[in-house]
Structures are given as C-alpha cells and as structure tokens.
Write a sequence for this structure.
C-alpha cells in the first residue's frame, strides 16, 4: 500500500509561501512597538517585551505625519470621486453615444497606455510648474483625475449592458444625462466598485508624482513623508516601522474587509486591461 | 466647461452646405452631448500623456536646466548616450532586472495559482497571506525590506544563521543588491500574477479536463497539454505587464538603495530621475527616456508579433 501524508501535499508548498509573504508585514507591526534597545539586540527578537509606543509618539511629535495622513486621504478621495465621475461619463460616451471624432478620441486614449512614466516625468513637472501647482496637493491628485484604464473599464462594462432599458427610458422622454444617471449608473455598481479600488490603490501608494512636484513638508503625502524621514532617520527603526504601519494599515484593513472586491479588481486589470 | 471646450471647434466651421436647421441642430446637439460625456476625461488623459510625450521629444533636442533658456542641440543628446557609461550601465541593470523578474513572476504566479486552486483546508488563509503584500505601497515595502535585509540584525541574516549559512550584505553589496531588489519586487507583485492566473484557471472549461481524465491522462499530462495551453493568452498579457513593471521600477529603488551601492541598482528610470531632478539636465534626461521608450516599444511589438505568429489570440 502507498504511504500517504495525513494532509494534502499542497500544504508543504503553501504554508512556507504564505509565511514568506505575511511574516515581514507581521514583523513590521511588531517592530513598531519595540524600543531601540530591543531592536538592536542579538540575536534579534521577533516579539516586543510589551507594547512600547515610543516610536509612534516620536513620529507624532517630530513629524507632520497627521498632516500627511490627512493630505493622503484628501488626495485619494478627490482621485476616487473624479475617477468615478469622469471615467463613467467617458465610458458611456464611447460605448453608447454617437458623435463626431469619437473613434479618433478613443484611439488617442488607448494609445496613451503605451507611453511609459519615465517619458512623462520631465514634461509633467514642467507643466505643473507652468500651471503653478508645484508644491500644492493638486500635483498629487491631478495625475489621478482620470485614466485610460478607467475609461476602458467603464466602456467595456457599458458595452455589455443590454441597450433596451436605455431605449425605454429615452422613449419615456428622459434626456441622455437623465437616462445615464437614473437607469445606467445603478446597474454599474460592480464596475464602479472595481474602479474605486483601483484608483484608491494607485493614488494612495503613488510616490513618483508627489515626489517630483512637492518639497514643502506640510504638503507631503504619506509616501513621500515615509521616503523623506527614511533619509533622515535611517536607524530609528521603531519610528520607521510605525510610519509604515500608519501608511499601509488603512489599505490592508480595507483589503481584509473587502477582499473579494480587491481580487475582482486585480483580475479585471489582468484579463481585460 | 466641458461643453464650451467641445463647442469651440464647431462654432468656427464655415457653413458650406446649408442643411435644414432642424437636422443640423440635432447633429450639433448630438455632438455636444457626446463630447460633454467623453470630453473631460479624454482631455485629462490625453493632456497628461500624449501632449507631454510629444513635448518630451522637443525637450530631448535641447540643452536645458529648466531655468535658463533652452538651447537647441539637435541630435547631440542622443549621440552622447552612446558614449555614456552610466547610461549603458543603467540599461544593463534594467535588462538584468527584467530578465530575472518577468519569468520568475510568471512561473511563481502559475505555481501559486495552481496551488490556490486546490480544494484543501486553510485555502482562504493562504490566499489572504499571499495577496496582501500587493496592497502595501512600494515605498513602505522598500523601507520594510531595508529592515528585513539589514546585515546586522535583519531577519534574512538571522534565518541564514539558524540554518548554519554565512551572513550576507544583501542591499549593501554591489554584487547582490540588484538580485535582492528583484526578490523584493517579486514579493510585492507576485500576488497580482497569481490572481490573474487563478482567474484564468477557473475559466478553463471543466469538460476539457474531464474528457482528458476519462481518456486516462495523468494529472501532470492534463496540466501540460490542457491547462498550460489554455493559460497562454494570459501569459502573453502577464509577460508584457510585468515587463512594463520591471522597466518602470522606481519607488522600490528609491526607498531601498537609491541606485547604490556603487550604482549597482541604478536602472534607466532612476537614472533619468537623477539626471532631471538632481542634476537638472532636462534635455539629456528626456533623450535617455525617449531612447528607452523606443527600445521598449520594439520589444513589446516583438512579443506581440511573436505571439500572433504562434497563434495565440491575446490581442
């Protein structure tokens, strides 16, 4: 008789993998509650002796992290709201409305996907400078007001909806805008949720755009804030980890709560993006 | 505001063929409505990418520090790239990173997706653990990696010590840093590949697999001859997506090594960032960016062309 493991052999692969992926994050949280002495001990400790909050306290007292958090929340909120409104409007326009220049405009939007970020860094900075939004939060949210991905996602979704409902609404005398708002949008909730998650992840985690445009530390987002005090406090690990916890926990908690929605977003990006 | 923008070009069009007012009015209204819907987002997307991309080309033919007036130097910036050892090194690092990162993320992605597709206990726990790093920002990931790979007290060396292996310098060693950066990038991005492959696996028609099993195929042969070919379109997409990710890697390098030690992790994107924003050589930076863009486009076209020719229909 063949000898068998008492459990599926897949566990032998998945358990170590899962630990490799999650333990660094666990260590990040635990280290944020350690004292400097504990962190520098040899051999290294994994679990703090008790919950030391000195790292958090120093961070709150010596940096503008509360401000950075509020800035990031504001930037992400504007980005998500603008994305939902503008991309659903454009997606509907491209999917359903007939107007001069539609094909060309859609082609231009699709073509932008090919352009890499490094090509845009220099001219975007110069555009921000001319528009007078260097060193303002606008520099952090303007790049996320709308995206080709968002327009494409919403267009695909609307193309998949049956057109009869809209025709009925038009026959009843609804204007295009009215039909869109009261008939189409309520059906689009899953696509809108996917788009919201995508925009939240991108705008919250963005480092490059705020980095090139913002140097006033009152206007920092969390990501540049983290990067900047990493430069000045290379060895204050409990503070650095505390900053990391503050910057990543909102999204991690959101992920744990709405895992299904996050995974749907990643899948959509992969299969249709 | 959007309506004003849409209306302007029409208002100036000379009326050559006067049509009945009603029909023309309706056409105008239709165009206005269409542009009112599609215009604002299109304007933002095109204005923040196509327009600057064209502008970048003009900048690339100048010598400019962003403050003094730019001087036109023709193609000289491009000629200089050929003799720039830093540019060559940056291109080489980017290439090495891409060649390591793309196949590794595809293989790991398939492996993890197949494992997560099993009906076993704890699968929800595993899935959560493996996907959660994708949500953490690259900046935070970079800072955390600096701690985990710290040569003195980091968990990586502690693990090696427990296994009886010699300690390493990791991010502080010019010969290891790029490889470690690649590992960190994989840690953050593999979850994405795994999700995409998992969805693709679940899309494979069950009848296909069942038919093969009835015919007596082993599980391994089913995987090799049915599952893998079905995953091919997704693989083309993932390869392109991950290539773009690897070639544009910036945040992670900024928060781990800043291009060091001894420039060993200076990639093209990071080099352009330094040229433009630390040494204010905007024209030359734009030229390097354009050259990389051309190379990336050719590579992408080659991949798409190859996949077309070998019959997969991802595009």
């Amino acid at each position: 008789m063949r000898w068998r493991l008492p459990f599926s052999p897949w566990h032998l692969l998945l358990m170590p993998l899962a630990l490799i992926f999650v333990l660094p994050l666990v260590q990040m949280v635990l280290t944020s509650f350690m004292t400097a002495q504990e962190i520098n001990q040899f051999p290294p400790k994994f679990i703090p002796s008790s919950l030391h909050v000195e790292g958090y306290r120093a961070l709150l007292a010596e940096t503008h992290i509360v401000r950075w958090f509020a800035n990031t929340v504001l930037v992400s909120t504007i980005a998500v709201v603008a994305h939902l409104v503008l991309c659903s409007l454009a997606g509907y326009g491209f999917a359903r409305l007939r107007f001069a220049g539609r094909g060309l405009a859609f082609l231009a939007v699709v073509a932008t996907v090919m352009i890499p970020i490094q090509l845009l860094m220099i001219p975007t900075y110069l555009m921000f400078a001319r528009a007078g939004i260097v060193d303002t939060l606008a520099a952090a949210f303007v790049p996320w007001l709308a995206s080709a991905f968002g327009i494409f996602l919403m267009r695909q979704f609307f193309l998949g909806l049956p057109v009869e409902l809209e025709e009925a609404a038009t026959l009843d005398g609804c204007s295009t805008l009215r039909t869109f708002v009261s008939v189409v949008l309520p059906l689009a909730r899953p696509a809108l949720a996917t788009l919201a998650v995508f925009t939240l992840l991108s705008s919250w985690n963005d480092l490059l755009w705020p980095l090139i445009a913002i140097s006033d530390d009152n206007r920092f987002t969390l990501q540049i804030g983290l990067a900047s005090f990493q430069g000045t406090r290379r060895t204050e690990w409990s503070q650095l980890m505390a900053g990391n916890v503050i910057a990543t926990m909102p999204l991690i908690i959101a992920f744990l709560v709405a895992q299904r929605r996050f995974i749907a977003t990643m899948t959509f990006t992969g299969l249709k993006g | 505001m959007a309506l004003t923008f849409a209306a302007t070009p029409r208002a100036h069009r000379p009326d050559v063929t006067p049509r009945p007012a009603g029909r023309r009015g309706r056409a105008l209204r239709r165009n206005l409505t269409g542009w009112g819907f599609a215009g604002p987002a299109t304007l933002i997307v095109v204005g923040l990418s196509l327009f600057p991309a064209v502008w970048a080309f003009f900048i690339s033919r100048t010598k400019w520090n962003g403050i003094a007036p730019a001087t036109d130097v023709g193609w000289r910036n491009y000629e200089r790239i050929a003799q720039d050892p830093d540019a060559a090194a940056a291109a080489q690092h980017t290439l090495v990173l891409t060649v390591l990162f793309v196949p590794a993320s595809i293989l790991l992605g398939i492996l993890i997706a197949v494992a997560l597709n099993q009906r076993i206990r704890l699968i929800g726990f595993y899935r959560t653990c493996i996907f959660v790093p994708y949500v953490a920002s690259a900046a935070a990931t970079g800072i955390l990696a600096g701690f985990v790979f710290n040569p003195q007290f980091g968990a990586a060396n502690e693990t090696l010590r427990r296994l009886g292996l010699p300690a390493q310098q990791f991010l502080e060693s010019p010969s290891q840093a790029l490889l470690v950066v690649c590992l960190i990038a994989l840690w953050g991005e593999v979850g994405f590949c795994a999700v995409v492959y998992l969805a693709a696996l679940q899309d494979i028609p069950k009848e296909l697999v069942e038919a093969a099993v009835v015919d007596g195929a082993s599980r391994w042969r089913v995987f090799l001859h049915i599952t893998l070919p079905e995953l091919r379109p997704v693989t083309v997409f993932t390869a392109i997506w991950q290539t773009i990710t690897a070639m544009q890697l910036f945040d992670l390098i900024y928060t781990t090594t800043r291009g060091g030690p001894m420039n060993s992790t200076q990639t093209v994107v990071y080099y352009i960032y330094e040229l433009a924003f630390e040494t204010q050589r905007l024209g030359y930076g734009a030229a390097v960016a354009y050259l990389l863009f051309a190379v990336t486009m050719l590579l992408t076209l080659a991949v798409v062309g190859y996949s077309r020719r070998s019959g997969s229909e991802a595009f």
